[in-house]
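Researcher: Sequence recovery benchmark, item below. Answer with residues only.
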């Protein structure tokens, strides 16, 4: 990480933090909005469709063209070091980290420089297994404990970054 002039300027002049949600299959959209309302933070829910309109002025739905990485591309192009991304998508999390932003999974675990390399390697390994054995690999189910952990982790993360 090097010196970032824009980051320094935004820090000095108090650029507001924003939350970007990779919303296509995100199980914690409501929780993000709840925390954002409490903290008065802007939320961008980014997907290629299927988002419910929100009357909340803090929530902006961004509908991108359909495509494998269209939502990821939009988030990566707009997120800055002051912001938080909520995603399960490991390559998107890496792109956010490359922009000096923070990425958090819907279960409350953070992606960071220490674990992103292993996460990318495991993703690639699972993909290789699926392709070579023509089988499906499964992730653990999303639980109430995951939802609770996420709420606590997001709130704590916002506190730390302010």
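Model:
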């Amino acid at each position: 990480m090097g010196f970032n002039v824009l980051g320094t300027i935004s820090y000095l002049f108090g650029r507001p933090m924003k939350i970007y949600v990779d919303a296509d299959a995100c199980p914690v959209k409501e929780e993000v909005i709840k925390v954002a309302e409490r903290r008065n933070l802007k939320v961008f829910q980014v997907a290629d469709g299927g988002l419910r309109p929100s009357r909340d002025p803090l929530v902006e739905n961004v509908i991108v063209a359909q495509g494998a990485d269209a939502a990821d591309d939009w988030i990566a192009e707009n997120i800055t070091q002051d912001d938080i991304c909520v995603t399960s998508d490991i390559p998107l999390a890496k792109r956010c980290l490359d922009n000096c932003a923070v990425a958090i999974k819907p279960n409350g675990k953070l992606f960071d420089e220490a674990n992103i390399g292993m996460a990318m390697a495991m993703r690639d390994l699972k993909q290789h297994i699926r392709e070579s054995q023509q089988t499906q690999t499964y992730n653990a189910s999303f639980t109430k404990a995951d939802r609770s952990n996420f709420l606590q982790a997001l709130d704590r993360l916002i506190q730390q970054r302010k």
